[in-house]
Every structure is written in structure tokens, then in C-alpha cells.
UniProtKB/TrEMBL annotation:
Alphabetized InterPro entries for the sequence: DUF92_TMEM19 (IPR002794)
UniProt-annotated location(s): Membrane
Record family assignment: Belongs to the TMEM19 family.
UniProt-recorded name of the protein: Protein VTE6, chloroplastic-like isoform X1
């Protein structure tokens, strides 16, 4: 009897399941650390942007910034904030077409443009910059070999930026301060767009002419001269410049800045202005009393002084304004272009 009871206890002891020891972690099944930890920490750190947006005060701050940018009419705050955002995002493009000091000058131009004409005016200037930079890079190696390329591989300095936009900036300032009242507001806006149509037409005609012009000649006596000669024109460059002015004027129309008849005004004025500059450059450059023309960015860099380009020729003070603007550009270029 005792032997039978002992055998029964032995069988129960042998068949009973063993309890796994807690001291041997290798006996546990492999599980994800996320299942073992009831409050796991995300192993992928959040970006600074997402952390900023999840802060309690971030959403109101972003909303406030967007309200400022969308201010109508534009304010100085909206102009500065919008340009700061756009310049940060567009830095690679800006560096390709401008020097560091040129970028600073462009920021001032962009801020002034946004304050006067809002985002449509800024987009117009941006279109001018993109197209102008693109054509400047066309056949750069060939232009450099011929000695007619823009310095710094086409990267414009502050003298070029300010000189190119001088008349446009005047129109912007007149618009901001309401000079002449409502009757003149439309005129200043038209002058602003016409000035950039003129500058773009001049830049494109010059760069395309230097790259593809087969025959270049002076407009004063039709004498054949080498590419890059001041006052020289070519059929290829002239046609390209005309198309460029039409394109920018159409962009201004699509942005709601001007209407169709005003597109024609901008295009015609730009061609008259460029022709006039070519005549002046060919007739007077290098002659006694006019050697300053060669040093002035209004002729060597062809910002055209943008001459108000809107039919203000009837104004007796217009010619005086051109002379003053040329002199101002000359001084600015001599001081700032080395940077």
C-alpha cells in the first residue's frame, strides 16, 4: 500500500508542468519592445517644425503670420515678412543670378515692390529676374571667350540691381505715398511694369545677340561691328528682345496689373527706349565729354534707366530725370559693384 502511494506521488510530480524561472530571460519568447513597454517612446525624433507646430502658441503665431502676409492693401510688415520667406525658399535661384550684396539689394527692391503693388507686382519682378538670369547664362563659355560676358559669370551686383530698377522704384514710391492722387495711381503702376518690360527686352536682346547674332551693326550708320559693341544691334537679338517685352507685359496682364491696351503701350515704349539707348550709345560713347557713358551702368550694363517708358516724354522734366538717374547709377555702381 505504501509502495503504491509513493508511485502515485512520483507520477504526479513527474507530469506536473514546470514553472519557468524568472531568472532566465532567454526562456521568454521574443517580443517587440513596444509590446513590453506600455508607454513606448517614439524612436524617430520629431522635426523641429512639427515640434514647433504642436506647441500651444505655435498655431496662433502661424495664423497671425499668414494674416500679415495676406494683408490687403499691403503693409510694410507684410512686405518684409513675405520677402523674407520667399528669399529663404528661393536662395538657390538667387545665388545663381546675384552676388551676396546683389541679393541684399534685391530684397530691398522686393520689399518696396510688395508694399506698393502687392504679390502681383512681386511676381512680375520675379518673372523678370528668372528670364533675365536664364538668358544671361546662354552660351556663357562662348561669351567669356569673346570677352563680352557679364562679369562674375552673370551674377549681378547691387549696382546692376539698383540701376535696373531705378525707374520702377520711383514709380513704387510714388504709388505708396499716393503722389498725384487716384488719377495718377494707374499711371505709376503702368510705368512700373513698362520699366521692367524695357529692362528685360534690353537684357534679352543684348544676351541673345551676343550669343546668336550673326551680324551686328550700329543703328546710327549701319556699320558692321563685333558682337558686344555698345550701341550695336542684331536681328536675332532685336526679335528676342521684342518677344521678351511682349511676354512680360502679358504676364502683367494675366496678374491683373494692366489691361490689353496697356500691354501694347508697354511693348512699344520698351522698344522706343531701347532704340534710343542704342542710338545714344553708338553716337556718343568714347567721344570727348561723353566718356562717362562707358563707365555708367545705364549703358555698359544696359539697365536703360527705364526712362519711365510710358509716354512721359511730354514731360519737360523727364530728360532731366534721366540725366540725374544715370549719374546716380554711375555712383552706385562704382561704390557697390566691387562687393
Amino acid at each position: 500500500m505504501k509502495m503504491a502511494w509513493s508511485n502515485t506521488l512520483l507520477q504526479i510530480h513527474i507530469k506536473s508542468p514546470s514553472i519557468p524561472s524568472l531568472h532566465f530571460p532567454h526562456s521568454l519568447p521574443k517580443r517587440s519592445p513596444f509590446l513590453l513597454n506600455p508607454n513606448p517612446i517614439n524612436p524617430i525624433p520629431r522635426s523641429l517644425r512639427m515640434q514647433f507646430l504642436h506647441r500651444p502658441n505655435a498655431v496662433p503665431l502661424v495664423s497671425r503670420a499668414m494674416d500679415i502676409i495676406q494683408s490687403s492693401p499691403p503693409t510694410w510688415q507684410s512686405a518684409v515678412l513675405s520677402n523674407l520667406l520667399i528669399f529663404v525658399v528661393g536662395t538657390p535661384l538667387l545665388v545663381a543670378g546675384l552676388s551676396l550684396s546683389g541679393i541684399c539689394a534685391a530684397f530691398l527692391l522686393g520689399t518696396l515692390t510688395w508694399r506698393a503693388f502687392g504679390s502681383p507686382g512681386f511676381l512680375l519682378v520675379a518673372s523678370y529676374f528668372i528670364i533675365g538670369t536664364a538668358v544671361t547664362k546662354v552660351k556663357m563659355a562662348q561669351k567669356e571667350a569673346q570677352g563680352v560676358a557679364e562679369k562674375r559669370k552673370g551674377r549681378r551686383g547691387p549696382g546692376s540691381v539698383i540701376g535696373s530698377s531705378a525707374a520702377g522704384c520711383v514709380c513704387a514710391v510714388l504709388t505708396i505715398y499716393g503722389v498725384g492722387g487716384e488719377a495718377f495711381t494707374r499711371l505709376w503702376q503702368l510705368g512700373f511694369i513698362a520699366s521692367f518690360c524695357t529692362k528685360l527686352s534690353d537684357t534679352v536682346s543684348s544676351e541673345i545677340g551676343k550669343a546668336y547674332g550673326k551680324t551686328t551693326y550700329l543703328v546710327t550708320n549701319f556699320q558692321i561691328v563685333p558682337r558686344g559693341t555698345e550701341g550695336a544691334v542684331s536681328v536675332e537679338g532685336t526679335v528676342a528682345g521684342l518677344l521678351a517685352s511682349i511676354l512680360l507685359a502679358i504676364i502683367g496682364c494675366l496678374l491683373g496689373e494692366i489691361n490689353v491696351p496697356e500691354v501694347l503701350i508697354c511693348v512699344i515704349a520698351s522698344q522706343i527706349a531701347n532704340l534710343g539707348e542704342s542710338i545714344i550709345g553708338a553716337a556718343f560713347q568714347g567721344k570727348d565729354g561723353f566718356r562717362w557713358i562707358k563707365e555708367s551702368p545705364s549703358f555698359t550694363q544696359k539697365p536703360v534707366t527705364n526712362r519711365f517708358d510710358i509716354g512721359l516724354e511730354a514731360n519737360s522734366n523727364h530728360n532731366m530725370l534721366q540725366v540725374m538717374e544715370n549719374q546716380l547709377q554711375q555712383r552706385i555702381s562704382l561704390v557697390l559693384d566691387p562687393f
